[in-house]
Amino acid sequence: MNTALLIIDIQNDYFPGGAMELVGSTEAGAQAGRLLAAFRGKGLPVIHVQHISTRPGASFFVPDTKGVEIHASVAPQAGETIIQKNFPNSFRDTPLLQHLRDRDITRLVIAGMMTQMCIDSTVRAAADLGFACSLAHDACATRDLSFGGVTVPAASVQAAFLAALNGLFARVQTTDELCAGL
Q1: Which are the contacts of 181, defined by CB distance < 8 A and separation ≥ 6?
Q2: In terms of pTM, does the model score above 0.85?
Q3: Catalytic annotation on 140?
């Protein structure tokens, strides 16, 4: 299979001091950086996805801010593809699908942020489009969520979404396992 690394929304606003800090973003960014180094070392394709918020009143990923920039832990190098998106699903209204098909990519290794939003949306879409997906769970991060007066801790959100994706939609693995399999 032709494999590419898809790094989704690892951007400054999700890190300490950012407008939407996630739990474990620094650690997840470091793991994604390890995956990125492994792909670069093997000469495998890398695609960076950058969310640009076009929603009125958006509080993070605002255009022309430091927060919207891709984080240093996974900074693109010259020649690496950057796909900009405006929705959680990285395929929606972007050239991502055509880019992958033009290169005969059939397998995606995915890392990024937020697990319950853009990672979930993109992994499910990729699987529906016929891609074999592997998700680096330790290279993803999320945040606490609330519903009905109950706060769900980030660790529980992370575990629930990874459990739901594992199997039918993706093979959920560690960065170490994915690097060893390249």
Answers
A1: 173
A2: yes
A3: no
